[in-house]
Give the backbone structure.
Amino acid sequence: MSALKKFFKDTIIYGIAAILPRAVNIGLVGLHTEVLKSNKFAINTEYYVYAAYLNALLTYGMETAFFRFFSKEQEKGKIISTSFVTLLITTVIFLILGLSFATEIAQFFGFQKEIYVQILILTVFLDTIVVIPFAYLRVTNRPIRFAGIKIANILIFAFLNLLFLWAIPNGILSEKILPDALNFYVKGEAQVIYIFLANVCASLFTLLLLLPNILKIKWSLDTRILKKLLIYGLPIMVGSLAYVTNENIDKLFLSDIIGKTEMGKYAACYKLGVFMTLYITAFRLGAEPFFFNHAKEKNAKNNYATILKWFAILGAVFMLVVVAYIDLFASILIRQKEYLDALAIVPIILLANLFLGIYNNLSIWYKLTDKTSYGMYISIFGAIVTIIFNLVMIDKIGFMASAWATLVAYGGMMIISYILGQKHYKVPYNIKQVIGYILLASVLSAISFYDGFRGNYIIATALVLVFLGIIYVAERKELKRLINKGS
């Protein structure tokens, strides 16, 4: 099996692991927007913003460092044990301190109840200690087990959401037949808390499934290896924090500047951009170990260029399909009309996320050359752009400012990474083709959304078929070559 064919096969499996859980999450948006008013949906969004920051902080780049040195070092057992034990120690310290000062933390961040903070801390703790076990499954080419556990996690989460937000409130499941473990349920309670509880239960279940893998890890810590991991990983952590800022700080700004109701609308419609996020995540899960494991092959750079081109093509297709059928997707996923006020952000967010995916693809240059500080600087640049643009423009154009800020930040990061990458690790990317496909998809998306054709699914289908036809005509020779090469 060729390297490219194996990459695409693994990416499909990882794609299932990424897409199915997030697809379930998309489905839950309908339930959440039906049950929660936009201001309460904003609380749910803020909760996960803080969770994202904590996850980036507590993993401090160790996952990417693990991939780099597992493929590079001979003493692979020490890489596993050192990275896992280090994360476990720091996360346990975080758990103890976080629970001890939960009241003060809740007051500082404006959470209505201390239990929100307690659940958040416990969830982040559980999610952090499984980072290395999950990374080990990926780097040792065990995508099926990886996917199975990820899918089990989201099924538990979805089941508990349906139980707490639909079955019990509607009397479908009588409280009298509930087990004692569920007696904490109170009908008058703010329903958003049950989303948080469902999350922590799913995270605990994931830990139990990974426990056999965890118990096989030798509990040792090699300070020499730890130093290497930290030197490589800490710039990744700063970059990750900047990335979380790019992804999430807009929600916090919107909440403070124009209110939780408007932020809730923005956050709900932002979820429609998750279709691109699904695609990017699936790609990243398969690509990161592939890029490291095949870096020494003779045609590695040509493979990277091919992967980027097809990533951009498929991403452009995703963007056009979602925009062309935007009202259909919105009617399925968003139950209350008040949320639809922010639907105009979706095309912008989709394009921004496509730029982010290309940036992730391009970022292999600084990871393979151990110049991770560049990634940190690029991410900080994006975060600064996001912060300034939001602060200056939200008062003027509302939540549209946050969408445009995301596009400008990710577009800038993509361009900078390409320019620097060609100086330090030159890859023969076909930039003209990539730009051409994205530009064409953007024009067709704009026609379907803005030029009076919105909601006309005959026109929408025609535009999608035109784009697919152009791709087929232009790329049929390479498609045949890739298929024949992989067979």
Summary: Residues 3-486 form one domain. Confidence is low (pLDDT under 50) at residues 179-189. The chain has one domain: 3-486. Residues 32 and 41 are 7 Å apart (CA to CA).
